[in-house]
Specification:
Distance between the termini: 37 Å
Mean pLDDT: 96
CATH superfamily: NAD(P)-binding Rossmann-like Domain
CATH topology: Rossmann fold
Strand order of the largest sheet: 3-2-1-4-5-6-7
Strand content: 5-15%
Number of strands: 7
CATH class: Alpha Beta
Helix content: 40-55%
Radius of gyration: 17 Å
């Protein structure tokens, strides 16, 4: 293989879960900018019109989908609708996730179950649904959303940390199992990013100061497109020999 690295996604079809806002929105737009048509998984599909219009304004096709990642039947239906509309599925980005915050001694069973249902069970079954398509195609890319929380303890987020650590290992397992089918499986693990989900926490001055200090290398909070760039890379031909890896996008938090 002597060609120069290619980072474009022309002719590819991607499905992004949790596409409504924050990282999911940025990733969806970045994939479209790189040339992919994008199926957009929303917990409430009616909210997806604006993002779909933005993607279509970039000259790409978009498909808003009802895809509550905690509902397995909606996962499989969304994958089926993607393939029916576009004829294939090249890229799955498992972005959907939740993070109820509580001290370990106060965690409620419903919050525990909901976090595992979305972050871990949802990621597995979305990968399974897409994986079945990709196995038939003999090619595909799956990119999971882990977190620095899977590599460093965050007080008050024990259940979230547990699920993100599990996603990093699930990524290795799927990469080894499906590599023979031409499927690359990787993950990204961001630090705190400016998103609607972190806005309230970071609005507290002492929280923001602590986070910036812990991001030991760059001492700043990340932006969604800085995560989206790594996703586009992993989805692109340039990452053809990378599989089973989790790329930390943490500004140096875990390097200390």
């Amino acid at each position: 293989m002597n060609d120069f690295p290619r980072f474009d996604l022309q002719g590819q079809v991607a499905l992004v879960t949790g596409a409504a806002r924050g990282l999911g929105r940025a990733i969806s737009l970045a994939l479209a900018h790189a040339g992919a048509d994008v199926a957009l998984g929303f917990r409430h599909a009616a909210t997806g019109g604006k993002l779909a219009a933005e993607i279509e304004g970039m000259g790409r096709r978009a498909l808003p989908l009802q895809m509550d990642i905690a509902q397995t039947e909606q996962i499989f239906r969304a994958v089926d609708e993607t393939v029916a509309r576009f004829g294939k599925l090249d890229i799955l980005v498992n972005n959907a996730g939740i993070a109820p915050e509580n001290l370990a001694e106060n965690v409620r069973e419903p919050d525990f179950d909901a976090t595992l249902a979305v972050n871990l069970k949802g990621t597995f079954f979305a990968s399974q649904a897409a994986g079945r398509v990709m196995i038939r195609q003999k090619r595909g890319r799956i990119i999971n959303m882990s977190s620095q929380a899977g590599f460093a303890a965050l007080p008050g987020e024990s259940v979230y940390c547990m699920t993100k650590a599990a996603i990093a290992h699930l990524t290795k397992c799927l990469a080894i199992e499906w590599g023979k089918h031409g499927i690359n499986v990787n993950a990204v693990a961001p630090t705190f990013i400016h998103t609607p989900g972190t806005e309230e926490f970071l609005a507290i001055p002492e929280n923001r100061t602590d986070v910036v200090e812990r991001i030991a290398g760059l001492h700043r909070i990340g932006e969604p497109m800085e995560v989206a760039g790594a996703v586009v890379f992993l989805a692109s031909p340039a990452a053809s020999l990378i599989t089973g890896e989790t790329i930390l996008i943490d500004g140096g938090w875990t390097a200390r």
